[in-house]
Design a protein that fits this description.
heterodimer; A: about 170 residues; alpha+beta; OB fold (Dihydrolipoamide Acetyltransferase, E2P); 4-stranded antiparallel beta sheet; 3 helices; 10 strands; about 30% strand; B: about 450 residues; Rossmann fold; Dna Ligase, domain 1; D-amino Acid Aminotransferase, Chain A, domain 1; 3 domains; 5-stranded parallel beta sheet; about 25% strand; globular
Chain lengths: ~170, ~450
């Protein structure tokens, strides 16, 4: 790999795309490659700015479509949810409508303050009547439910904030 | 305009193009993007942006459910599919219809019918549009000789049970049939368990021509002239122009008439393109297929007719205005488009995504650049490698070729490898300037020489 060919680099990108890694950083004498699934990511040597990528204020998008018409594009990205230090965010796996309960009138999956396991379902995302439960992914305590019931969420939008168990 | 807000279900230069057309008509644009396109030009221009999924197309731009969900939730009353991705999937048009969203394109049934090769050929035949002439089964060498006399040499013998070149040969005279018939039949027998052969006209000197048309969904169809897209590599168009300067007026009239007949027979709605093979030696045209979307190369037709085709698409979809009359659409001047791709032609067209450190397209009279790129833009590795379209217009083809040569010489991109050196090489060829080429010309005559010079 001292003198990688374009094919080598293409293979690396291909491998990276097939992997479940978030980032890959490779440095040789000849080159330095930094691959990341986060389009906002910068090379490790650069100033790292941690931003919740697509956290959107729900009202800006889902609540009142007619009223939000004139909202400039930037507005969709400006209202980012800050994740307090030591907390973990549960993010939307894709665009959809966020529901706190498995069906209307049923108790919510989780409430603030509730202790949960990593495989506890915390909410539901619906796309075209296809319902996908979202798991916490980490054992801990629910600290905040960020999105209002029944609103549209975007890919990677912060849904729930969890304080991991020590 | 009855359409108030449209979803733009595409990315790259066509998303930018669609947003511009929407805004010109006072329509708001909601742009869906993958995570990789959050900072794209289209996202910057749109009135609202919705991130629908991660970078891979399957989880974003190819997921009709996500896209229509976003359209509904943002209050869109229309959806423009662009080209590629879901633009020719009946599924997307159907989902739009089910959810009360106007699909800016043909009806779902039209997309389905024309997307099926055999059905579209049957529809063309029914409408009286010429197909490549061929025969039924041919049982013997004598029968083959007779059939070839009738079709005219050269002819192509094919196995009726399969493809892939098995049992296939080109014959330029009767002796060639005598020499190869039995062997081809045996080969077909071994490959497919059926040695039956049939015959088609072989088009040696082929041009790819296509007619841009728009229909009102009630049977009225107008055309915007033809395009010649014969500079191709692996059936991918590289350079397209309008009009097809080579074609005599009488044949051009037949070409336009065939396209209009076909589309009006199905009460075609919105923009579509009917593709033909132009057999230059026989001076004949044969139907290939219909593309039920706006095409990459639509700008050359816009340049020579003065009509904005994407705005026309919105107007038709909105049921607002009637189609223009055919006699209001006049073709004047000449336009040529080059597709600028982030790929390395000297290394077998390896895609070359990366960050553009300098973006300096040519400017000036008769030069149009449709692109989503700018200084510092990161061309993501997940999608098509096209980064721009350079469209040049002049009074006639010779002047247009000259202007194109100068424009390409002034097109500077740094940070990644593009096909601009190849495009410069192609348009510098005498055969290109003299309009002497066919659909295999680039691959057979130009690329070998280019690759020898650029390793």
């Amino acid at each position: 790999m001292a003198n990688p060919t374009p094919a080598d680099i293409e293979n690396l990108i291909e491998l990276f795309n097939r992997s479940d890694w978030d980032e890959m950083h490779l440095k040789t004498d000849a080159l330095e490659i930094f691959l990341s699934n986060d389009p906002n990511a910068r090379r490790p040597s650069a100033q790292v700015v941690v931003a919740a990528p697509s956290a959107v204020a729900p009202a800006a998008v889902g609540a009142a479509p007619a009223a939000s018409a004139a909202a400039p594009a930037a507005a969709a990205h400006s209202a980012e949810v800050s994740i307090p230090a030591g907390m973990v965010a549960v993010r939307a796996p894709n665009l959809g409508t966020f529901y706190r309960a498995p069906k209307p009138g049923a108790p919510a999956y989780v409430e603030v303050g509730q202790a949960i396991e990593a495989d506890t379902e915390v909410c539901l995302i619906e796309v075209m009547k296809l319902f996908t439960p979202v798991k916490a992914g980490v054992k801990g305590t629910v600290r905040q439910i960020v999105v209002n019931d029944g609103t549209m969420v975007e890919y990677e939008q912060v849904l729930v904030i969890i304080e991991p168990a020590a | 305009m009855t359409i108030k807000r449209t979803l733009v279900a595409n990315r790259g230069e066509i998303a930018v193009r669609v947003i511009r057309a929407a805004h010109a008509l006072g329509i708001e644009a909601v742009q869906v993007v993958s995570a990789a396109d959050r900072d794209s030009e289209a996202a910057r221009m749109a009135d609202q942006v919705v991130v629908i999924g991660p970078a891979p197309s399957k989880q974003s731009y190819l997921n009709a459910g996500l896209i229509v969900h976003a359209a509904k939730q943002t209050g869109c009353d229309a959806l423009h599919p662009g080209y590629g991705f879901l633009s020719e999937r009946a599924e997307l048009a159907n989902l739009c219809a089910e959810n009360g969203i106007t699909f800016v394109g043909p009806a779902a049934e039209t997309i389905g019918a024309l997307g099926d090769k055999l059905r579209s050929r049957a529809i063309a035949a029914e409408a009286g549009v010429p197909l490549v002439p061929g025969t039924d089964k041919i049982a013997s060498i004598t029968a083959a000789h007779k059939a070839a006399e009738k079709l005219g040499y050269p002819v192509l013998m094919k196995a009726s049970a399969g493809g892939g070149g098995r049992g296939m040969f080109v014959a330029r005279n009767a002796d060639a049939i005598t020499a190869s018939f039995d062997a081809a039949s045996t080969e077909a027998e071994e490959a497919f368990g059926d040695g039956t052969l049939y015959m088609e006209t072989y088009v040696e000197n082929a041009r790819h021509v296509e007619v841009q048309a728009v229909g009102d969904g009630k049977g009225r169809v107008v055309h915007f002239g033809e395009r010649d897209c014969s500079v191709q590599r692996r059936y991918q168009k590289v350079i397209e122009e309008a009009p097809c300067a080579l074609m005599p007026a009488k044949l051009r009239g037949e070409l336009h008439e065939s396209a209009v007949k076909l589309l009006s027979s199905m009460k075609y709605l919105n923009a579509g393109t009917v593709e033909f093979l132009y057999d230059v030696d026989r001076q004949a045209i044969y139907f290939i297929e219909v593309n039920t979307r706006i095409q990459v190369e639509h700008p050359v037709s816009e340049q020579v007719t003065g009509f904005d085709l994407v705005q026309t698409q919105f107007r038709i979809a909105g049921g607002e205005a009637a189609l223009p009359r055919q006699d209001q659409i006049k073709v004047g001047r000449h336009a040529i488009e080059c597709r600028i791709n982030a790929e390395d032609a000297a290394r077998n067209f390896m895609p070359s995504p990366g960050r553009i450190t300098r973006w300096s397209p040519p400017r000036g009279a008769g030069i149009r650049v449709d692109s989503h790129c700018h200084d510092g833009y990161l061309v993501p590795p997940y999608y098509d490698s096209m980064i721009a379209k350079l469209i040049v217009t002049a009074d006639d083809r010779p002047a247009c070729v000259e202007r194109l040569q100068r424009a390409l010489a002034n097109f500077e991109v740094e940070g990644l490898t593009t096909n601009i050196p190849l495009l410069r090489y192609i348009v510098a060829q005498n055969d290109f300037a003299q309009n002497r080429f066919h659909t295999k010309w680039l691959e057979q005559s130009v690329l070998p020489a280019f690759q020898q010079d650029h390793v």
